[in-house]
Amino acid sequence: MAAEPLMETIKEQFILQTELKGGVKLTHYNPKHLYINLNNEYDHATVLSKAKMYVESQLMRFLVWTPTFKPEEETHLAPVWVILGEVPWHCYCAEVLNPLLSTIGYDEDENGERKWLSIQYEGVHDYCNYCKHHGRDYNACEVKGRDEEAKRVKEQEEKMNNKNSEDDQANKSIKEQPLEQREHNKKMDEETRTQEQWQTQKRKGWKNNQQTQQTQKTQQAQQYNRD
């Protein structure tokens, strides 16, 4: 991997390649970022429209700074050229065009006479709202693809774990079923034996009662004959 250029070299190449009209201040932020402070609007527009340059074969890209800057995310703002068609001749001056272009994207007062102008954007940068980087399309983002694949694998693993848990529970129920069945059969056998014993005692009692009644009748008949 090539060594990173020194700040002095970066500043010299920056001034040389951008052809600034005013002063500039470069401040180191981290190994991948530095702040560029320009003191006039012309240089600011020139640098942003240039978009990038090379310092000792190392690519250096220019991005708009915002108060919400995060080093791990690239801003979604990027300079673009706007083409206005059919602008009246007397409006081709900075005093008219600058205020006119500054209103693009904002609601204006609906009162008064107006004329609609069509615009075309040139040099629009691809920007991925998922990984927050320039030059990447959302639908073809590698980071998004990896995350979705990891999510899909995780969901499959969770489904397999849930299925294995259900199978284990089913096997446990099958193993426990014979024991429960034996307990049930044992209880039914005890109830059956109790019922049979009760029926046997009932029959014995009825038979003894019949024999007693028969004996009493025989004794009464013998007594009657003697009399």
TrEMBL record:
Pfam families: DUF4283. Residues 152-194 have a biased composition (Basic and acidic residues). Residues 152-227 are annotated as: Disordered. Residues 210-227 have a biased composition (Low complexity). Residues 5-73 form the DUF4283 domain. It comes from the Eukaryota. PANTHER family: ENDONUCLEASE_EXONUCLEASE_PHOSPHATASE, GLYCINE-RICH CELL WALL STRUCTURAL PROTEIN 1.8-LIKE. This is DUF4283 domain-containing protein.
